[in-house]
Amino acid sequence: MTIQLRLQELIDALDVSVLEFARKLGERRGEKVYHILHGRLKPSYDTIEKILMAYPQVNADWLLRGEGLMFKILSSPSAAITTEERLRNVEYLLFQLNERMTVLQATNDQLLAELTALVRKGN
Questions:
Q1: How far apart, in whole angstroms, are the C-alpha atoms of residue 91 and residue 98?
Q2: CA-CA distance, 20 to 22, in Å (whole number)?
Q3: What is the rounded distance in angstroms from the CA atom of residue 23 to the CA atom of residue 49?
Q4: 70: enclosing H helix or E strand
Q5: Model pLDDT for residues 75-85, shown as the tens digit of each residue
């Protein structure tokens, strides 16, 4: 999954508009974020840093590389993630598992086809 898709998922999970999201990052308009979402721009280091500062519950590993959960599970009660954020984490994990199952099924099908072809050549 690309960073653009992860950013869109984050905006959806936070239940904010692109404009609200951009304004929380210090942007007056949402053009920069729209350009990132549509692949016309790559997010800069400064933009990533602003996202992580504005939304401290966001897991940097997830945002940058798609690894782990979307939201951190923080120990501080004031920074605890909401039930909705926990549900988003579970949804994302299920999405990742489904993606992996699809890849494994395709690999299995390919191996089965190759094995069948080898058996036919041997007969």
A1: 10
A2: 5
A3: 14
A4: none
A5: 555 455 677 77
Q: What share of the chain in percent tops pLDDT 70?
A: 93
Please answer whether residues 66 and 84 qualify as being in contact, where contact means their C-beta atoms are separated by less than 8 angstroms. Answer: no
Q: How far is CA 74 from the centre of its chain?
A: 19
How far lies 60's CA from each of 10, 69, 112, 122, in Å? Answer: 12, 9, 39, 52
- pLDDT by residue (tens digit) across 16-52? 999 999 999 999 888 999 999 999 999 999 999 999 9
Cα(22)–Cα(29) distance, rounded to whole angstroms?
A: 7
77-80, long-range: CB < 8 A, 24+ apart: none
Structure tokens at 26: 């210090």
Residue 41 CB neighbours (<10 A): 15
